[in-house]
């Protein structure tokens, strides 16, 4: 287990919990509360929900006589677990001004103390595995914290700076050209002792035709060429749903891009900046990725091609859209109860992204990791790798 190898579960727990608060350290109280669109959750909600996860799945069932911090929190901070009862509508998360941010931090303190005492004695491998799932779950919310904070600040007309010292835009490719992978039968899926999510299991064989995959990701300047060539206006390049999305939403540039005095700028966590031509493109939807690939006379790799090629690729700057629908691997099975709701029920109408991004927490990435989003979503650090 990558997270815990060096440190053991107690220290891993503290490190992960502290990291969430480190991400929120630059925020003012007001920044913790809004939900500007349904898919963005308030930072306060992430901090409380990741805490609720430990309270609900670890402490409540395993600590005799455990006193729940506040019985109302189950309703407020359950995300999507139908097995755990009724909950706030996702779209109402931003309306919950109470408990206050301060109260949510107090909730974290309480659960951290209870967890610390519990972990000191813990040796049951099944519960340990659940704690580890809770840590990886919190790391997923850490990435969402960053992208949701970016959305909240990036849709403020003042474009506030999140953290001046943290540069998260200027990632460059270290390599160019294409890698050739020969045809063959390859093994796909997680193997070995380390942690993985259930959706990576069911290691199985796939047959791949020979293919070539780009060693670098598409850069801003390459995407500007597509824009200047009329890419957003040419229906021939777009999937039908993508063309509807472009027109319904009047899309003409990646998310966070603004044309000011004839020059492209974008909002970054360092504030509004001129678009850096050589930096790796980010914040594009699957539809845009597919249209760009079409314009280039190429395509997106499948998730299987990506996994096999990844051993020889530089990755980890952007989540990379693949042309694979998010589906169960052969032999996939859902765990019984609430934990079974973690991944399996989302396996419809979403595409797989591979890799990791600049916002992914340390120790969280794997080459078998299967991220997934809807085809129009682009507030994550998403980019394009071409294949042919
Ligand atoms: Fe969650």
UniProtKB/TrEMBL annotation:
Signal peptide: none annotated. The keyword Repeat does not apply. Pathway: Amino-acid biosynthesis; ergothioneine biosynthesis. Gene3D superfamilies: paralog of FGE (formylglycine-generating enzyme). GO terms for biological process: ergothioneine biosynthetic process. It holds the Pfam family DinB_2. Residues 175-310 form the Sulfatase-modifying factor enzyme-like domain. The keyword Iron applies. Keywords: Iron, Oxidoreductase. Residues 13-143 form the DinB-like domain. This is Ergothioneine biosynthesis protein EgtB.
């Amino acid at each position: 287990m990558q997270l815990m190898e060096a440190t053991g579960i107690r220290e891993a727990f503290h490190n992960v919990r502290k990291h969430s608060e480190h991400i929120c350290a630059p925020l003012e109280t007001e920044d913790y509360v809004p939900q500007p669109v349904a898919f963005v959750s308030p930072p306060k909600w992430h901090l409380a929900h990741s805490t609720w996860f430990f309270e609900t799945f670890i402490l409540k069932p395993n600590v005799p006589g455990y006193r729940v911090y506040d019985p109302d929190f189950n309703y407020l901070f359950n995300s999507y677990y139908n097995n755990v009862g009724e909950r706030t509508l996702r779209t109402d998360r931003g309306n919950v001004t109470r408990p206050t941010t301060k109260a949510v931090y107090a909730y974290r303190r309480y659960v951290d103390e209870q967890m610390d005492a519990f972990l000191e004695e813990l040796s049951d491998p099944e519960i340990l595995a659940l704690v580890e799932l809770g840590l990886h779950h919190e790391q997923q919310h850490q990435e969402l914290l960053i992208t949701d904070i970016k959305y909240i600040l990036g849709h403020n007309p003042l474009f506030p700076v999140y953290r001046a010292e943290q540069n998260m835009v200027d990632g460059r490719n270290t390599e160019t050209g294409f890698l050739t992978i020969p045809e063959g039968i390859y093994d796909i899926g997680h193997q070995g002792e380390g942690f993985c999510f259930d959706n990576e299991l069911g290691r199985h064989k796939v047959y791949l035709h020979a293919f070539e995959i780009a060693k670098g990701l598409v850069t801003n300047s390459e995407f500007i060429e597509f824009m200047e060539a009329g890419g957003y206006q040419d229906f021939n390049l777009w999937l039908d749903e993508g063309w509807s999305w472009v027109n319904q939403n009047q899309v003409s540039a990646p998310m966070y891009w603004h044309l000011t005095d004839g020059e492209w700028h974008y909002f970054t966590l360092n504030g509004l900046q001129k678009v850096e031509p050589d930096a790796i493109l980010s914040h594009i939807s699957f539809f845009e990725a597919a249209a760009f690939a079409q314009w280039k006379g190429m395509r997106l790799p499948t998730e299987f091609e990506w996994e096999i090629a990844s051993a020889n690729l530089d990755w980890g700057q952007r989540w990379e859209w693949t042309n694979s629908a998010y589906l169960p691997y052969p032999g996939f099975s859902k765990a019984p109860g609430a934990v079974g709701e973690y991944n399996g029920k989302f396996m419809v109408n979403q595409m797989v992204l591979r890799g990791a991004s600049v916002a992914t927490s340390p120790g969280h990435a794997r080459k078998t990791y299967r991220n997934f989003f809807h085809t129009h979503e682009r507030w994550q650090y998403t980019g394009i790798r071409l294949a042919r």
